[in-house]
Design goal:
The complex is a heterodimer of chains A (411) and B (156). Chain A has 14 helices and 15 strands. By secondary structure, chain A is α/β, with parallel strands linked by helices. In chain A, a hairpin with a 4-residue loop joins strand 9 and strand 10. Chain B is an alpha+beta fold. The chains are: A alpha/beta (411), B alpha+beta (156). The complex binds pyridoxal-5'-phosphate (PLP).
């Protein structure tokens, strides 16, 4: 564990930080900073638009980053990987491009109550413009989905798309994607996966999943900010109109109009996040030195310990499945990456502020999931999230501080 | 407070200075003038107004009775963090008996002074939720349009 932590500049700080907010943003290892720095020093130049040596080096680095992402999520073709600025932009791309073209009055999009605002609002924007309906899939008491509701919605025959998270950024529960995708495809609906959280905590194979779109951000995967990825099946991406207009995304422009470029350039208008894409590829290469089995075993041990410790705190309530959970590794019901809790009569902002002053980083609020919090009947919660570098000592320090905060506010 | 949060060097907001000072915690644990019902006898004329901080779900409802351009009775109810609730508790004591004119010139700085602890940018809205609610209750009384958060916060 020390060997992992030592590779992160922030985690080398003294006194040792207790960083339990990786679900909002993961820390970045030396290897990624070095790769970005190396590109800045020796290749910095725009891509696909110069004959000189640097332009070529930069283009090679950028396209090689695309291949790295392709391999990481096992996409069939490199041009199925579109670089965006974030997961949010990637989802908006699907809504604006595919949605505008394929959704019409009376059509429906299915969302789950677990969704992040990034996977809600783009569809609500379409709802207003295109006269479509949004059909919601509720959760059960443990944070699993009501698959019966999904089936009912799909049977209406109106559903063109199911937009679903691969991992809740509040409850840490993972919907059964293979099941959702197979149900949706049976009725001809497409599936768009929000993998913002899942990408750092579980292996993702887009061919095996057979999802139609998948989006994530680099910064939750130990990579720089400012880069995201949209995966889409090639035939779909090819049939979709461009999203943003500008340089790079055209084949030809005349005073009369333009014709769009081929994939992936069609969806990458303007100068792309080159350094960030290089950093993302470095993060993936760095992460791949560890096996998913080791990463998951470690993270799940930490989460198990967290649950055990938190349960010993009076008046603390863990949201969703962890409330009464059985340890079973690699089980879909298990938690990945994070869990959230409330503490009776201690407001999340007070708790995280008191913890923050002790150098312990947790996140408080609705975590961009207001509908989920409304469903749970609470305005806000505290989220504790883990990463490959999280230690048992961090959990112990956090639990101790929670008890102290509780005592301070209510002696 | 973190580096870069604010350009104002005169605000003393070191991490070491505790926001949860005893007087804040005292008002939080034992809120003054808190009740679910307006406590005025002239209940019919009570002005009731609620504001919410959506980002954390804190709410404050104030009940005011105003006679001869003066607040003759104030009570409030709410849920939320220690800062928002303590600030409202203090503000209710401060506002009692004040004239409409005196209420109009009440500024964020007055609330910060009542709290007596450093309020960083992260907690501004918590500290000012009560002020925002009272200001808008006064506006409701005057039949004026509600003021926005920027107006409540910007008048410092
Ligand atoms: C589940 C989920 N979806 C989408 C996002 C949006 O990611 P970004 O803000 O990087 O676009 C997040 C980030 O918090 C998330 O947790």
């Amino acid at each position: 564990m020390d060997a992992v932590r030592r590779q992160f500049p922030y985690l080398r700080a003294k006194p040792q930080p207790v960083y339990l907010d990786s679900a909002a943003m993961a820390q970045v290892p030396d290897a990624v900073l070095d790769a970005v720095n190396a590109w800045e020093q020796s290749s910095r130049s725009n891509v696909h638009r110069g004959m000189h040596e640097r332009a070529e080096a930069s283009t090679i680095a950028y396209e090689s980053a695309r291949s790295t992402v392709q391999t990481f999520i096992n996409a069939t073709h490199a041009d199925e990987i579109i670089f965006t600025k974030s997961c949010t932009e990637a989802i908006n791309l699907v809504a604006r491009s595919w949605g505008e073209q394929n959704l019409h009055t009376g059509d429906a999009v299915v969302l789950s109550i677990l969704e992040h605002h990034s996977n809600i609002v783009p569809w609500q924007q379409l709802q207003e413009r295109k006269g479509i309906d949004i059909l919601w899939v509720d959760m059960d008491d443990e944070g699993g989905l009501r698959y019966d509701q999904l089936e009912t919605h799909l049977q209406s025959g109106r559903v063109k798309l199911v937009a679903i998270t691969a991992l809740s950024n509040v409850l840490g529960t993972a919907p059964d994607l293979p099941k959702i995708i197979s149900l949706a495809h049976k009725t001809g609906a497409l599936v768009s996966v929000d993998a913002a959280q899942a990408i750092a905590h579980m292996p993702i194979d887009v061919q095996e999943l057979d999802c139609d779109f998948l989006a994530f951000s680099g910064h939750k995967l130990y990579a720089p900010t400012g880069v995201g990825v949209l995966y889409g099946k090639r035939e779909l991406l090819q049939s979709m109109p461009p999203f943003l207009g500008g340089g790079m995304m055209i084949r030809n422009v005349t005073t009369e109009g333009f014709s769009p470029a081929d994939l992936p350039a069609k969806f990458e208008a303007g100068t792309p996040p080159i350094a960030q894409a290089v950093g993302l590829a470095a993060a993936i290469d760095w992460l791949k030195q560890y096996s998913w089995k080791d990463i998951q075993t470690h993270e799940q041990e930490i989460l198990q310990l967290t649950i055990d410790r938190l349960k010993s705190i009076p008046a603390l309530h863990i949201l969703g499945a962890a409330g009464n959970f059985q340890f079973s590794i690699f089980n879909f019901q298990f938690l990945h990456g994070c869990l959230s809790f409330t503490l009776s009569s201690v407001h999340p902002h007070d708790l995280t502020e008191i913890l923050g002053r002790k150098g312990i980083a947790l996140r408080a609020g609705h975590h961009c999931c207001m509908p989920l919090h409304k469903r749970l009947g609470i305005p806000a919660s505290n989220r504790l999230s883990v990463g490959i570098y999280t230690t048992k000592e961090e959990i112990d320090a956090c639990v101790k501080a929670i008890l102290e905060a509780q005592k301070k506010l209510h002696p | 407070m973190r580096k870069g949060d604010s350009g104002s060097a005169e605000k003393i907001t070191p991490l070491t200075m505790d926001v949860y000072a005893e007087n804040v915690l005292d008002h939080y644990r034992h809120p003054r003038n808190k009740s679910q019902e307006p406590k005025t006898k002239v209940q019919d004329s009570a002005i009731i107004h609620t504001e919410e901080n959506l980002s954390c779900g804190d709410t404050v409802t104030v009940h005011l009775a105003i006679e001869n351009d003066r607040i003759t009775s104030i009570s409030w109810d709410g849920t939320g963090c220690a800062i928002s609730q303590a600030a409202m508790s203090m503000l209710s004591e401060e506002s009692s008996g004040k004239s409409i004119r005196e209420m109009e010139v009440l500024m964020p700085q007055n609330v910060y002074d009542l709290l007596g602890v450093p309020i960083g940018p992260r907690r501004t809205k918590c500290a000012l939720l009560g002020l925002h609610t009272v200001k808008n209750a006064m506006r409701k009384h005057a039949g004026k349009e509600m003021q926005r958060w920027t107006e409540t916060m910007g008048s410092s």
